[in-house]
UniProtKB/TrEMBL annotation:
Gene Ontology molecular function terms on file: hydrolase activity
UniProt keywords, alphabetically: Hydrolase
Protein name listed in UniProt: MBL fold metallo-hydrolase
Keyword Transcription regulation found: no
Ranges for domain Metallo-beta-lactamase: 22-224
Listed SUPFAM superfamilies: Metallo-hydrolase/oxidoreductase
Pfam families per UniProt: Lactamase_B
Species annotation: Oceanobacillus profundus
Amino acid sequence: MLVNVSEGIEKLVVRFPGGMQEVNSYLVKGENGYTVIDTGIYSEEAIATWEALFDTGVEVKKVVLTHTHQDHIGLARWFQEKKGVPVYTSKLGYKEMLKHRDKKRIKENLADLLHMHGGPNLPGRIGNDSFIYEFEPDGFFDETDTILLGNQCFEVVWTPGHAPDHYCFYQKDRKLMLIGDHILNKISPVIGLWTGEEFNPLNDYFASVERMQHYPTALALPGHGENIHRLSERVQTLIQGHERRLNEVESIVKAETLTAAEVCEKIYGSLKFSHFVSPFMATLTRLIYLESMDKIHRFYDNEKVYFSINQS
C-alpha cells in the first residue's frame, strides 16, 4: 500500500468519492512509528484504507496537517479519537477550524456570495461536515518554526493562497519539500473563497509562489498527483497559466459589463452546480485581483455586482 518516495518517506494514496477523489498522505518514518501528513476526506472508503494499513502493523505516532480543507483534515478527528494519535495543526489552521464549526454561517455567506455575483442558488441540501472540525489539536506550529516529522526536522513555510492557512515543510539539505496543495504537477490549485468571505487570495498566492525561489527544491511531494522534480519550471508554468486567464478575464470584461458568474460561463461554458463552484471561484478571485490592480472596477445594480473595464 505504501510507495517509497524518498529516504524515510512513504506515500499512501487515499481514495474517496467526490471532490478530487484522492489525496496523497505521506508517512515520515520515526524510531517508534510514522508521522502522517494529511489524512484524506472523512468517508468509509478512506477509513477502510487506513484500517487496512494498520492491519499490516504500521504504527502512526502523530498527524500533521498542511491545511484544513476537508480532504486534508477529514480524518484527523478520527485519528485522534479512534486511534489515540495526537494531531498538530498551524495556529492559523485552528482559526479556520473554528470558522468551519459554524456551518450555518458559512452556508449563509456562500449563498450571499453566489447571489451577489450572479450565481445560482445554493442547493437546499448540502452535507454538514462541520463535525470533522470539532476537536482540539494536541499541538500547534507557526511560520519559521522547525517541526519534527518522524525523526526528520523540517522548516515550516507559510504559503497562503489556495488556503489562508496553507503550510509547506522544507528540508534544505535534501532540497525536499512537502508542498501540500500549494503547487500541483498537472493542474492549477483552485484559488477560492470557500468560507464565503471576500478577500484577495490570488494576490496572496502569487506572493507565496514567488517565495518558492528562496527554497531550492529537487523533489516536491504534493497533496494530489505525481511528484514534482522540476519545481521552478512548474512554478513558471503555473504563473503563465494564471497570466493567460487574467488576460482572458480582462478581455471579456472589456467587451461587456458582466457578473462573475457570466464571465465564468463565457470561459467554461454552462455547468451543473456540482461542477460550477470551482470554476466560479477561480473566476471571481481573478476578477478581485484585477480590481485590486485597478484594471477593472465593480458597481452594484439590483443587489448584484457587475464588473467593467477601468477606463481611466
